[in-house]
Amino acid sequence: MKHTLRAISALTAAILLAALAGACGEDKPIGGPSSGVVRAEIRGPASIAPGASAEYAVVEFLTNGTTRALPSATWTSSDASLVTVTASGVATAQQRNGETVLAVSTQQGKRATKEVLVLPEGTYRMVGRVVDLATNLPIPGVRIEATGGAAATTGTDGSYRLYGVPGEAEIKLTRDDYVPEVQNIQLSGHATRNFVLTMDGSSRSFAGNYTLTVEAAQTCPSQAPLQSDLKRRSYLAIMRQSGSRLEVELTEPRFVARPPYAGNRLTGFITPTGATFQINSDYYYYYGSDVTESLPDGTILSLFGTATTSGSPSGLSGSLNGWFSHMTASYSFLGGCSAGRFTLSPR
User: Taking 80 as the threshold, does the pLDDT of residue 226 lie above it?
Assistant: First the structure.
């Protein structure tokens, strides 16, 4: 009997050992069954020195709460002329400052992005806007220079971006018609700094009586084109000036006001070479605009867009990037055409 019990025990132990050995031999992933991918993330430095390289990795977050690094993926750079990136995530910067966005796509269809700055060590990115003191309007064409050589020029919205500004820097702002501004700043990281400039009074006055002429493009869309007799319109106007701000009022009684649009008024501001004007509009519904003319047949012509002009003794002239819309009195669309020229001639 004792021999029988020993045999049964030995057999049971053998079966258990075989089962354990079989279990250990199975190829199961660590952490449990295979999981789906929730998202991907790029890991690596936030900045690279000019001419240097850095390694970036893409990590996938799984539904079981674990992560895994991928040895390779599809990498791209939004500015390959500044930073290139290989399939293994090695990014190399050129010998200049700036910023790019690295993007990666995985085989599982996940995508991740990361902003990367190219800056010398110990320097920062500084962004902001420059506006006119009297009007609070943005000033384009302002030259901004920082200690160390970082420089930029403001765009039409007055914004700028400087790369490579040291922690302690002198900022110099210059533009014709404005008093130069110099400020000392201290930075401990990337920062936003806005500036205000004052006109120096040297710019000539644009105030006076004018004739405003607006012209549509020579070629209009083939579907519902603008009538040929509506492609060129001339209006009597008065221009007023306050600092760098300009206001043009159309003085004839043939305009329609549809609040918040006066129908006979547009604004602008002085630029280094002339002036820029904005004709605002409810362009989606064609409900009204800063220039809305009532035509003799009861229909309406509405204009909108941005005019960029150059100044000369004969006035201000340039292009109008916008649209002419011909409508019924109830604002049903009849025809249209892209805008072309914009001229303010003294009278």
Answer: yes
Rounded to a whole number of angstroms, the distance between the first and last alpha carbons of the chain is 129
Percent share of the chain, pLDDT over 70: 87
Of 95, 118, 141, which residue sits at a domain end?
Answer: 118
Asked if the model's pLDDT at residue 318 lies above 60, the reply is yes
In a domain, 23, yes or no: no
Is 160 domain-assigned? yes
Residues 216 and 340 in one domain: yes
Burial status of residue 201 (CB atoms within 10 A of its CB: 0-12, 13-18, 19 or more): exposed
Q: Which domain holds residue 190?
A: 123-197
Residues 139 and 114 in one domain: no
Residue 67, both tokens: 């992560």
248 and 341 fall within a common domain: yes
Among candidate residues 4, 91, 109, the one with its CA nearest the CA of residue 55:
91
Label residue 303 by pLDDT band (50, 70, 90): very high
Burial 38-49 (b: 16+ CB within 10 A, else e): eebebebeebbb
Looking at the fold, whether 158 and 47 belong to one and the same domain comes out as: no
Domain boundary (93, 118, 143) is at 118
> Is residue 19 included in any domain, yes or no?
no
User: pTM of this prediction?
Assistant: 0.57
| 3-state helix/strand/coil string of the chain | CHHHHHHHHHHHHHHHHHHHHHHHHCCCCCCCCCCCEEEEEEECCCEECCCCEEECEEEEEECCCCEEEECCCEEEECCCCCEEECCCCEEEECCCCEEEEEEEECCCCCEEEEEEEECCCCEEEEEEEEEECCCCCECCCCEEEECCCCEEECCCCCEEEEEEEECEEEEEEECCCECCEEEEEECCCCEECCEEECECCCCCCCCEEEEEEEEECCCCCCCCECCHHHCEEEEEEEEEEECCEEEEEECCCCECCECCECCEEEEEEECCCEEEEEECECCCCCCCECEEEECCCCCEEEEEEEEEEEEECCEEEEEEEEEEEEECCCCCEEEEEEEEEEEEEEC
